[in-house]
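FAQ
Q: What does a multi-component entry look like?
A: The components come first, one per line:
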Amino acid sequence: MALRTPLYENHLKLNGKIVEFAGWELPVYYTGIIEEHLAVRNESGLFDVSHLGRIRIGNSAAQALIQTISTNDISNLQPGNILYSLICNPQGGIEDDILVCKDKEDYLLVVNAVNTNKILTIINNKLPEFPAVIDNITSNTAMIAVQGPNAATIIDQIFPETPTQLKKYQFLNLGKVVLSRTGYTGEDGFELIVDSNEASTWWDTLLKEGKENGLKPCGLGARDTLRLETGNSLYGHEMDSHTNPYEAGLGFAVKLNKTDFVGKNALSEIKIKGIQRKLVGLEMTRGGIPRDGYPIELNGQVIGKITSGSFIPSIKKSIALGYVPIEHSASGTEVNILIRNKPYPAVIVNKKWR
Amino acid sequence: MNPDDLKFSKSHEWVKLEGNVAIIGISDYAQHELNDIVFVELPEIGKQISAGGEFGVLESVKTASDLYSPVSGEVLEVNSELENSPDLVNKEPYGKGWIVKLQLSNPSELDSLLNHTDYQNLLKG
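Then the predicted structure of the entire assembly, as tokens:
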């Protein structure tokens, strides 16, 4: 049975169309994906992202534990700062992409909903060697994102002066609220982690305070089109346990010169040998909407496949992310996407549309 | 068009009979479920379609959905306005958002379709 976030009733009140995603019942939209996508690009949007896993890791073993399971280097991460990192398997495949938040006393990991249990297992398996204290706070907290050009104005109304204190990838622990300047939409934005009992009140307060700045509740549909337009990867689509960080364009989050970590040897080898395929952006040139799994063809040969694709309302284009062999990955390369077995022309482009 | 004058399939398409020509579209419920429709793949004129067979695809932002014909016949006309304004299916599912016109080959197939009241009862479950 699917899980419900503490905001489930709020979504029903707002006529959210509920779907199951990564084991959670969440709204895919309230009024429409196009309207919600445009709200975030032009004004602001409010998202329930409580499905994301939140795991606190404490005591003196915490840093060494996180260093050993993840690819980025947190040794210089200062309190109040956040680092994007990956958790890989010994073969160098990606098990998750995560945020590591360094709090005063401990660390907070934010992981993908679909991977929360897997990451807890990976952590637990390391506890005999690194006896840190683990607290999975996912179910007793909620997480709410305020995204868009007006997000800072709205947050300033509720938490005065905080937007001037917070740079991108920083957070403040305000006691009842952990407020970070993070998001997934390609806009300026903030995320709040609050007590699950207070989630509904925070949600309503944000909607009320944000009203004059166009704050609109937004569902998973817009969250997906916004991240795709930004070129952000989604676990299970652009990354999985058989994808390595270099081909996914995430090599910046792998620090081979830090202390030993899971996957280090395999990743060192991949880096020396070079990658065989690469994640690229694609744009349809004469119609058709690419979707996850559709084949990419060059001269009648299937050379790769789409990992995410959609029509994007703000740019009125159909775009996609997908893997192609490195020798065919140059921008400007013309390919076909097979949509229901019919070839539609597309061109490889830089995977960032904004 | 008044939905009370239409016949509905369980797969949420409607048919309006004009002489021996069937006009086909999707129900208001279906357009609402699909949400923002951004592309309609229309069949070729002259194509033979059988009842229950696929005749096109509606693409919303989120997903692609096949269209199934409630009746058999030959495609006489497609709504070419949908090429530039696919959102007509959302805005006027029973009017300017119609999808194809078929030359009906087996009029008795209409008997197995639902009237508007029965269709609405089906939606209520």
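Q: Is there any commentary attached?
A: Sometimes. For this entry: Chain B has a mean pLDDT of 96.
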